[in-house]
Fold this sequence. Notes:
Blueprint: E1 2-9, E2 12-23, E3 26-36, H1 41-67, H2 71-74, H3 77-110
Antiparallel strand pairs: 1-2, 2-3
Helix pairs in contact: 1-3
Amino acid sequence: MTYVRKKKVKGQTYFQLVESKRVNGKPRQRVIMHLSKEPRVDEALESWPKEIARLRRQAKKDGDHYENQPEWLKNERYLKETFRDPAESARKRADALAARLKTLRNLRKSGVA
Length: 113
């Protein structure tokens, strides 16, 4: 049986897709996927593509700004910390969220979620 569990961590509320079953007569729960702040699977399926697009736009904007600077200026710590590093971080977060979205869609297709 799967359901969405609400968790509070450091005052923030997060949601997890959890599978529950009995092992040796005792109930056991296994987290299938973290849904972040989305309380329902449908909401995650709807909002995650928008978030992925937003992260990719931000990564492109910051990355383009950094790449359009002269070579001698690209080594400046300010530009690296303000544009290059956040662009790379946004790219990584978008890729990770896209992988989670793909997994969630597969779970939905297989009837688990």
